[in-house]
Design a protein that fits this description.
It contains 13 helices and 12 strands. By secondary structure, it is of the alpha/beta class. It has a 7-stranded parallel beta sheet with strand order 8-7-6-9-10-11-12, sandwiched between helices. Strands 2-1-3-4-5 form a 5-stranded parallel beta sheet. Helix 5 (about 90-95) links the parallel strand 4 and strand 5 (about 100). Helix 6 packs across helix 8 and helix 6 packs antiparallel against helix 13. The radius of gyration is 22 Å and the shape is globular.
């Protein structure tokens, strides 16, 4: 606990792999009294009434019904990142609590990661690195090759802010861009990146050399890519995922990679994270894995923190909340 006159904000912790960014603590303490989850659990009768916001960093702390009921002064849950699958939005709304996230802060670095993974998988960068440093390597074969990116067809599933920024980057590589999305983009937006809308996901899968997942995880998109969808893809195709691990049936993906149904995969996200150390995905040469690092740049993480602070302060002062998450009548995100 810090300054008693500042509004209380619940955080997962101030250190360790699941704590908030240590570089941000001083900035946060200018505005808030930070209450760690451990402090709260040890004395929730003291700290519960003081907490007016929950600051979620890396998906923690988990927001449960029990937690919500023990925070009578709670006004807002401010969650870093764009994904909302870790939050029960209907439950939170039923408690009269607002939600905000940081979609703009993560879109550019995540798009960068999407292209980095695509390029790494296409040109076999990780395999090449291993070959180059292997102690028994005596020469480099002129027949060791990867896939061409320039002029290839990229199918983007999910054309929100991240997907669109990926399309902007892919245009610079002279890629042919297809996309599938819940809502079609405006014609001028399509023309700006040279993207073609595919109403049929199957059509996109059949035509694409690279399939890139940048869609949110919802009950409707869980296991969006399974055995059937993988079998529709070209045997030379590469699957890239910067969305969520549960968008893909991982057992079906392992089988597809082992049997040559598709050429390779590059994944920034899996389920669970990290994978068990004996998981078959960790043993495949045609898989590139990164540790859910799409937004992991110093600049993006600082912007995320600043966006969360702005949303919390707006909520506490009764002002319009930047990046407020609103629910439609059917409980989908507006």
């Amino acid at each position: 606990m810090g300054d008693q006159d500042l509004p209380g904000v619940l955080v997962s912790g101030l250190e360790g792999p699941h704590g908030i960014c240590e570089d941000h603590i001083g900035d946060l303490q200018k505005h808030f009294t930070l209450v760690t989850l451990q402090e709260f659990l040890e004395n929730n009768t003291r700290f519960g009434p003081k907490v007016q916001a929950v600051y979620i960093w890396g998906g923690k702390p988990a927001v449960t019904r029990e937690l919500l009921q023990s925070l009578p002064s709670l006004k807002i849950i401010a969650s870093a990142g764009a994904g909302l699958d870790h939050l029960d939005l209907k439950l939170i709304a039923s408690c009269g609590v607002k939600v905000a996230n940081t979609p703009q802060a993560v879109s550019s670095p995540t798009a960068d990661m999407g292209m980095a993974l695509l390029l790494a998988a296409a040109r076999r960068v990780v395999e090449g690195h291993r070959l180059a440093i292997a102690p028994d390597t005596e020469n480099f074969s002129t027949n060791w090759m990867g896939q061409e990116v320039t002029g290839a067809t990229l199918g983007i599933i999910g054309m929100g802010s991240i997907g669109y920024k990926i399309a902007q980057r892919a245009k610079a590589f002279e890629m042919k861009i297809l996309y599938h999305n819940r809502k079609r983009r405006k014609l001028e937006e399509e023309e700006a990146v040279g993207a073609t809308y595919c109403e049929s996901l199957d059509d996109l899968l059949r035509r694409s050399d690279f399939v890139l997942l940048a869609v949110s995880l919802t009950p409707q998109t869980q296991r969006l890519i399974g055995k059937r969808e993988l079998n529709l893809m070209k045997p030379t195709a590469i699957l890239v995922n910067v969305g969520r691990g549960l968008l893909v049936d991982q057992d079906a993906l392992v089988q597809a990679l082992q049997t040559g149904v598709i050429k390779g995969a590059a994944l920034d996200v899996t389920h669970p994270e990290p994978l068990p150390r004996d998981h078959p995905l960790l043993k495949l040469e045609n898989v590139t894995l990164t540790p859910h690092a799409g937004s992991a740049t110093h600049q993006a993480r600082r912007q995320m923190m600043e966006n969360l602070v702005a949303s919390i302060l707006a909520s506490l002062h009764g002002l319009p909340i930047p990046n407020e998450v609103r629910l439609n009548w059917d409980n989908s995100v507006a």
